[in-house]
Each structure stands twice: as structure tokens, then as C-alpha cells.
Amino acid sequence: MRRLALLAPLLLIIGFLTFALLRMGGQDPTAMLAGPTATIEEINRLRADYGLDQPMPVQFGIWVGHVLQGDLGRSWITNRAVLGELIDRLPATLELLLCGVALGALLGIPAGMVAAFRRGRFADFASRALALFGFSIPTYFLALSMLLIFFYVLEWSPPGMGRLSLMLTPPPRLTGSYTLDALLAGDGAAARSAFSQLILPVVCVAIATAAPVVSQVRAIVLGVLGTDHISYARAQGLPHAMISRIALRGAATPVVTFVGAELAGLVGTTSLIEYVFAWGGVGQFGLEAIIKGDFAVVQGYVLMLALFSVAMFLIVDLMVLALEPRAALR
Amino acid sequence: MLLTVEDLHTRFITRDLDDRVRVAEALNGVSFGVGEGRILGLVGESGAGKSLTVTSLLGLLRPPARVTAGRALFEGRDLLALSEAALSEIRGSRIGLIVQSPRSALDPLARIGAQLVRVQRVHRRISEADARSRAEAMLVSVGIPDPRRRLEAWPHELSGGMAQRVVIALALINEPHLLIADEPTTGLDVTVQAQILDLLHEQVRRRRIGAIVITHDLGVVAQYCDDVAVMFAGQVMEQGAVAEVFARPAHPYTRALLASVPERLVLGTGKMLGGPPPDLYALPRGCLYGQRCAHAAAQCAAPPPMSATQSGAARCHFAGLA
Amino acid sequence: MIATMLGFAPLARARGLSRRSPMAAIGVLILALFVIAALFEPLLTQYDPVAADTTALMKPPGGAHLFGTDANGMDVYARVLRGTRYAFGIAIPAVLVAMLIGVPVGLLTGYLGGWTDEVLMRGFDAMRVFPSIILALAVVSAAGPSLVNVVIVLGVLDAPVFARLVRSEVLALRSGGFVESAVAAGNTLPRLLFVHLMPNALAGAMAQSAVRAAWAVRISTTLAFLGLGIQPPTPEWGAMIRQGAEYMVTGQWWVGVFPGIALILLSLGLNLAGDGLSELLDPRQRKAG
């Protein structure tokens, strides 16, 4: 819980740093907003409207005040409220991220465990080699290669253009996940299309997740296997399978902590995958905002990422509390 | 004899950065016996190979350490020749082990009761309920008050002394014939140390089982053990009944040990007892104690045999009865 | 990276590297090939990597053009070779910047402890939690996408890794009584830090430098891929993959695939060499022979 208390001021610091950074960058969004035909007076009036003529700390104060009222400003590109834009796009990102991370953890955690238990043997070598390969391939190139192989060469997959075939109408929005919504609406064609669009990006996220998970889980389990209580379990003559169970139980807490931290960091990777597959989630939106200098969107996006990290930490802490008898003391 | 160890050799075989094989000769022909109903004190400075002897016997060595020669007869079977599965059946049932650091040795994620029940049900056919009531009785006999509540405790909730009592209970609960205690009182304060040693002594006597107590404290040996084996550089230098050996030490190393205060037996400074232990990577050919021995002579360039003495046996050219 | 190379010298000398750690040996071999490509690029191809040839647009691999040509008629093979220089040219200085910042910071916080240490480490924790690619993108986009900016930003973002590593080494050395005896011998603080602690603490940082160089290559090419780093037609791998992205599913795969493979191989080489190096340097992980 102490970590959580530290994260509150952290949010403010991250907010301010992004703010300062973007302002110092010298990109003047008003010029873009006003268009090529605007006069100097028009631009200056716009600057005053947005409070951009004020000193930076004052601007930051104004921004924090607005944020607290739920106003993240307007996108200078779409000319819509940032908060609404982010919320509209959030389910698409969560769908991709959660499915991908779940699949990646499902593959990576057992692979890391097997590598640790079979240390120095073929299974160890193979899973480490695969992890290293997954680690070395850049995310965006992985995504492009997937499209090349599964769409162009094998023709198994739809083109990487969004979340649904362009021929179909999206199902009525309930959860925000096209696949789920289409199933709920009983629209078989849309569900099939949404699901097939989902597969490749999810596999990409899963590979990006699994690679570091394998090596980390391997190291964690090896560490646990080297502890006093495992040697003592052997001295008690406990059977091999039971010792493995005790070791895995001991590895649970560090593994959960690691995957949690990983999940927060994977948002960046997911953004790149969204970008290649034109997924239209928050990640792609944020990425494009950074590239184009859409100031208010970047601010909101960064804030949302920070909130997401805080939420992840909270969930991890709660899980550790459930897993560890010793944690209750802290 | 309950346990007879003969000529046990253990080596650490590694490769260094330049890919040269390096061999540390850690145990160099350890031999000793443990009689039924007797307590053997295994003494020596840190690094002499006391704990390594036990881990070698129980098949608990981790690479790069491995047993390269020797026999260890326990109840008619050679422990060093048994399969891992067969050894695993003996560990925790016929041989109980008490470790140095009870608090880190107990499984941190299992309650005390669960650990006591687990070790019984692995080694014998017994119902959960019966195992539980035996666990409760066992806690009482190792002097833990309020056993019913303690069965529900987590290891981190126990004090060091209490955790060591739990480890003793774990070692004894399957009624082993041999109990091995590896420095059972390290890290405990003095009054608790005496309580734990008294408890061990009492349990071994009452159950008429054999025991090995590893220690670097000669006072412990004098007070609690029947026999003693003095180890140096992976060899037993002298052995015999405690009273005899302490009255008439035949080996120069035993004499030096007896003349020093126990606190100085801890490994560290090269000052202790006239010099550092020999380099295990380059052992001398003759007597391993030769470099530190005040009485070293020309014969000592050849390895001394174990010869009978008035008090037992000693590995020294000058210790023979003649 | 220079440090890495120095670190490799004794290893290369060791006859048994390939047997001790086949993975590290493969890594070193891959790196050696890339170093050769970077140094002797003009000898390895007859084409100028930035010369457009309108008579040979989008030629498939084979014949006169080993890896084919791109939409400008530039030879993809020559461009991939030249790209090696950009990869090393960004990664090596970025890792040096990271070490220049991270090592002193780690030495100081490890030595001083207290709240300085607490605040810095919490700050580094926060940076680690935040996706590094987003951070790098935001900073580069604000600072302007010049080569120097990319190097500095990557160096600064990666400094915590080295600070953390050196700090933990210093803490381990302190608990070993090293510092006390050095102080007793009459050493001053800077002398203690840089003359006595640093050589000991640096070993771990060295082993990590190859892995961190792989990270720097990955992030810098990602920036270029997103159009924020080096711009086409400069033969930088990320920028080349960006050029090739649109042709990936229309049949002209070679424009993007070859720089991608080069990128994977270099990254693999750095990671293999780095992992193998840390394993060899860590006595706890040495295997029995």
C-alpha cells in the first residue's frame, strides 16, 4: 500500500513533465489549428483562448483544474473532446491487450517453469532460444511479417485494416468488443469477421508478452529452487512432484508482480501493433497524437497510461495479499 | 553399528573462464561409525567438511559437487549406491535431519500443521486426522505449549527457538533410527541453545536412536555426545569415545583444538590455530595437517594411516599405540 | 559498446568460449559479421545506397540486385549494409551516454543511501513502469527528431538501468566490508568511488552494455519506423521498413523484409553475446564440466 501512496504524487509529476516537455518542444498547435490562411491576430486570439499566452506553471494549473472537472481539452485534429475520444477507443485496446497478455502468460509462464525444472536440457534450450527470438524481433516488424505470411502468402487471414470487415456494420455497442457485441446481438457474420480480425494482433501481443515472461519466470523458479526451504523439503524426503508444487507456489508472488509490471509496460508495444493493424484503439490514437503533436490528446493519453499503471499496481498488490501469508503483516 | 561411513570422497568439479577444469577436493576419505543409541559429535573448524559429509550421505549434493568414492552402510544398505527415489524414502523417515536455519528452512507458505501432516503422509499410510493428532502430540513432546493453536501458525510467526523445535518435531515424527543435527543452535541465544540441546539429548535417549551432532563447539561435544570425530580438510583426524579422546588426545590437531577457546574455531582469519586450512584445489601429498603441525617431520610427507590409539584412532604417524 | 568490445577481448582469447557458452559464441560471430559490414561496406557492394535508378524500380531480388530495389530504384542490399552504420552509430553513443550518466549516479546513491537513494530509485521505478517507447517518442517528438537528439534521449532513458545495476553492486561490496577497509586506509570519497568502487561495480555494467545496445537499436529503429527519427531515403533500417510497409501485402515484400531481418539478426547477436557474457561473469551460474 505504501507503493500506492507514492504513485499519487507520481501522477502529478508525470503530468507536469509531459506538459513541460510538450510546451518546450516549441510546436505551436494554434498555427495548425488556425490553418494556413490565418492572420497573426487570429492566431494570437486563439492562443489567448487556450491560455497559451500564460506562463507555463499557470497553464499547468489551468490544465489540472480542468482535468479534475473531467475536461481533458479538445483534440486539435478531430476537434472533439479528448475524454470522449479516449473512452470511445478504450475497449478496443483493452480487448487486444487483455486477450494478448492472457495468451502470452498462458504460453510463457509454463514455458519458463519447464525451462527452470529442466535446466540445461533441451526444453530449457528451446524455450530460451524462442524467447530470445521473440525478444529480438521488433514488434512492428513482427506485425508486418504476420500480415505478409498469413494474409498475403497463405491467405488465411483478413487484411490488417481495423477490427471488422468493411462490408459489415458494427454491432450495437455494449461491451465495446466487436466480437462480444456481435455474439450478444446474435450477428454471426460480424462475430466471425471481428474474431478473425482479432487473431493476428492478439498473437503479436502474446509473443511480445511471452518473450520476457519466459526468461523472467525461469529465473524466478530457479531462484526458488535454490532456497533453503526447498533443500529442506528434499531432506524430508518429499517426492519430486510435491517439491515442484512447493516451488511453484513460492514462485507465484514474484511471477504475478512481474507480469503486472509487464502489463503496464506492454501498453507501448500494443500501441505499435494497433498502429500496424489500424486497430483504432487508444494506443494508435495516442501514438498518432504524439507524432502529429496533438497536445491535448498526448496529455490525456499519458495521464490515462499513468492511471492504468496505478490500477495495475493496485491489482497486483491485492493478488499478492491473497497469495502471501506474510504480506498481511505489512 | 547403525551407520558406517567408509572412505567417503566428495569433489567440486568446475571449469574456470579459460575452460580449465578445476577440482576442489573437499572430502578426502571420511570414515566414521555411529552406534545404536549413541550420539556422535562431528567437530572441526568451518570448511572442514562436516556439513558436506551429511549432504553427501543423504544425496542432497548439488552440482558441481559429487561423491566420487566411498560407502555408507545404513541398516544394511549403501546410501551412496541407492537411487534418488530409494534415498528419498529413507530421508525424513529412517533418517531425520535438523538444519541450521530453521526459520528459512520451513516452507513459508504452509502452516506448521500442514507441514507435519505432509511429511507423515508421504512416508506412511495414515489418515489426515491421525496424522494431525500425532502432530499435536509431537509438538507437546518437543515442548511447544498450546499445540493446537501452533498447528495453525505460519512459520514466520515463530521465534527462532520455536521454529527449531518445529524442525525437531518434523525430524522425529516418522520415528527415524538416525537423527542428524547440523549445527542445530546457530543463531539462537544462549539460554535457548541449552534448551534445544537438552531437548535433542532427551529425545535421542528416550527413543534409543543414533544421532550425529555437527558442531564447532567442543563444550557441546563434552556435554552431550558419547563419541567424537574430529574433522580437518575433509578427513577424520581422530575419533573415539568423548571422555577418552578429550582426556588423551592423540592427534596434534585435536590437542590444538582442545587448547583453543571455542569461539576461535569459526573460519575467517588465518591466525586461528596456527594457519589457514590447506587449499582444496592443491592439497599437499602427505599429511593434510602437516603445514600447520608443530611436530611435522620427514615421515609427514607421506599420507598417514588411521592407526589405533589408547582412546580410539588417529590419522597421524606418531599416534600409534607403540 | 566500446566497453563491450573490450570486455570481449579476453573472452575471444579464451579458447573454450564456443564450448563454454555456444550461445555467446554465436552472438559474437553475428556481431563480428555486422562490424565487418559496417567497416567494409563499399567493398561489399558496387551500388551507392542512396543513388536512385529510375530504370530499375521495384526489381525483385536476384540478378544484378541481390535483395532487389525499392520504389526509388535504390539497391536494397547496399542500403541494408549502410544501415549497419546507423544502427551502430546510434546504439554505441547511446549506451555510452547511458553509462556516463548511470554509473556515477549509481555509485553515489549506492554509497550515500538515505533519502537521495530512495527518491531516485522510486523515480527510476516510475520510469520503468511507463512504456519506454512512448516516453522516447514523446521526448523525441518534443525535442525534434535529429540524430543527436535520438542518441541523447535514448541515453538518458536508459541511464537508470546502469544506475540500478551499479548501485546494487556497490551495496553488495559495502556489505562485504570493502568500503570500511578502504576508508580505514585513508581514502577520500571521490577516490573511493571512482578508483576503488568503480572497477568492481563496472563488471556487471559491461556485461549489460550489449543487451542495452540491443534495446537502443530497437527503440531508435521504432522511432524511424513511425517517421520520427531519421527520414527516408536515408538508409536506416527503421525508415526502410516504413518505406516497405505498404508493399508488404502487395507482393513487393523485399523492400521491408531485408532490413527487418538485418535488425532481428543484430538484435539477436547483441542479446546472445550479452546474456552469454553475464552468465560467464557470474560465478554462481558456472556449470560443472
Q: What descriptors fit this protein?
A:
heterotrimer, A: 330 residues, mainly alpha, MetI-like fold, 2 domains, 76% helix, B: 322 residues, alpha/beta, Rossmann fold, 8-stranded mixed sheet, 4-stranded antiparallel sheet, 24% strand, globular
Fold and architecture overview:
The complex is a heterotrimer of chains A (330), B (322) and C (289). With 330 residues, chain A is mostly helical. Helices cover 76% and strands 0% of the residues of chain A. In chain A, helix 5 (82-117) crosses helix 9 and helix 11 crosses helix 12. The longest helix of chain A has 38 residues, at 188-225. By secondary structure, chain B is an alpha/beta fold. Chain B has 2 domains: 3-94 and 176-315, P-loop containing nucleotide triphosphate hydrolases (Rossmann fold); 98-175, no CATH class. In chain B, the strands form 2 sheets. Chain B has an 8-stranded mixed sheet with strand order 6-7-8-3-9-10-12-11, sandwiched between helices. Chain B has a 4-stranded antiparallel sheet with strand order 2-1-4-5, with helices on one face. The longest helix of chain B has 18 residues, at 190-207. The model of chain B is unreliable at 264-272 (pLDDT under 50). Chain C is mainly α. Chain C has 12 helices and no strands. Residues 283-289 of chain C have low confidence and may be disordered. Chains in contact: A-B, A-C, B-C. Chains A and C meet through helix 1, helix 6, helix 7, helix 11 and helix 12 of A and helix 6, helix 7, helix 10, helix 11 and helix 12 of C.
